[in-house]
Amino acid sequence: MTTPAQTGEADIATNPVLDTPDDASVDLSGLLSDSQVMEVLQKLDEELVGLKSVKTRIREIAALLLIDRVRRSIGLTTRPPTLHMSFTGQPGTGKTTVAMRMATILHRLSYARKGHLVAVTRDDLVGQYIGHTAPKTREVLKRAMGGVLFIDEAYYLYREENERDYGQEAIEILLQVMENQREDLVVILAGYKDRMETFFSSNPGFSSRIAHHLDFPNYSLDELLAISRLILAEQMYRFSPDALQTFRAYLEKRMTMPRFANARSVRNAIDRARLRQANRLFARGGKISRTDLMTIEAEDFQASRVFNEEMPDLV
């Protein structure tokens, strides 16, 4: 007499993949609608100008997670994908914004319990004396669990010139958690591209755990102008025709100056123009129309020290 094991019936009874017919299907459109992932991707498109390669990779990651979720729903189990990332680029290129959207995507596709972002730097992780670093690092990790830990200027964790630097202790704890608890935490390391490459070459443990490297390019002049329009619209302001031309000239000069920070510098420049506009209207007095209150004029930028070679405005 043959047994179920001899005929293979036991394997069929306990294997969900064998129980699922090959023509089994899942409503992908319905799953997308339920997760609202497309809304997040659309918002990312609306919020960020340019960055085509970055947006493409984020969509690819979202697609991978969605398909992985579908596979699991019909018994096609596999190891969860490695999701730790590296974001490289100059300041103001959208790294933090993309990290926030990534946390939301992970949550909506059930890869993050909370979907929150904890943004830190070296000072949040590394202590100043013996025994101080481990509890600081573990406290940050505890807050980040179930979401995304975003470490800006991550290369400052490692200081090769100082053998007694406590950053190495934080690195060792991070590496352990990135490997052993990767199903409950995604770590994103961010910073300048050249410094991050040096950091990874000095810390191969980090490099081997990073699955996705995204480079955020500087914005072009036209992209910066598009960003300025989005910022103005968000705050219910607008350029006069002359102001737009003056701001273009402002950006052309500012982009060649030290510490230019892409979208961040654009926002700072608009904030300064709003300050000058308010002062101009206040000094003028009398009746002020809705159009007056909304319009940034050329003179609100012409007063900037960017147009004075001797005293460059660095904000």
Basic shape:
globular
Low-confidence stretches: 1-18, 311-315
SSE series: HHHHHHEHEHHEHEHHEHEHHHEH
Over the alpha carbons, how many angstroms does the gyration radius reach? 26 Å
- State the share of residues found in helices, binned by percent: 55-70%
Major sheet attributes: 5 strands, parallel
The count of strands amounts to 7
Strand order of the largest sheet: 2-3-4-1-5
Amino- and carboxy-terminal Cα gap: 86 Å
Please tell me the overall pLDDT. 86
Structural class: alpha/beta
Number of continuous helical runs: 17
Content of β-strand: 5-15%
How would you describe this structure in keywords?
single chain, 315 residues, alpha/beta, 5-stranded parallel sheet, two-stranded parallel sheet, 7 strands, disordered N terminus, disordered C terminus
Protein model, in words:
The chain has a 5-stranded parallel beta sheet with strand order 2-3-4-1-5, with helices on both faces. By secondary structure, the protein is an alpha/beta fold. It contains 17 helices and 7 strands. α10 (167-180) links the parallel β3 (148-152) and β4 (186-191). The chain is globular, with a radius of gyration of 26 Å. The chain starts with a helix and ends in a 13-residue tail after the last helix.
Brief synopsis:
By secondary structure, the chain is of the alpha/beta class.
Describe the secondary structure blueprint for this structure.
Layout: H1 4-7, H2 9-14, H3 16-19, H4 28-35, H5 37-47, H6 52-73, E1 85-89, H7 95-108, E2 117-120, H8 122-125, H9 133-144, E3 148-152, H10 167-180, E4 186-191, H11 193-202, H12 204-209, E5 212-216, H13 221-234, E6 238-239, H14 241-254, H15 262-284, H16 290-294, E7 295-296, H17 299-302
Parallel strand pairs: 1-4, 1-5, 2-3, 3-4, 6-7
Helix pairs in contact: 5-6, 5-7, 9-10, 13-15
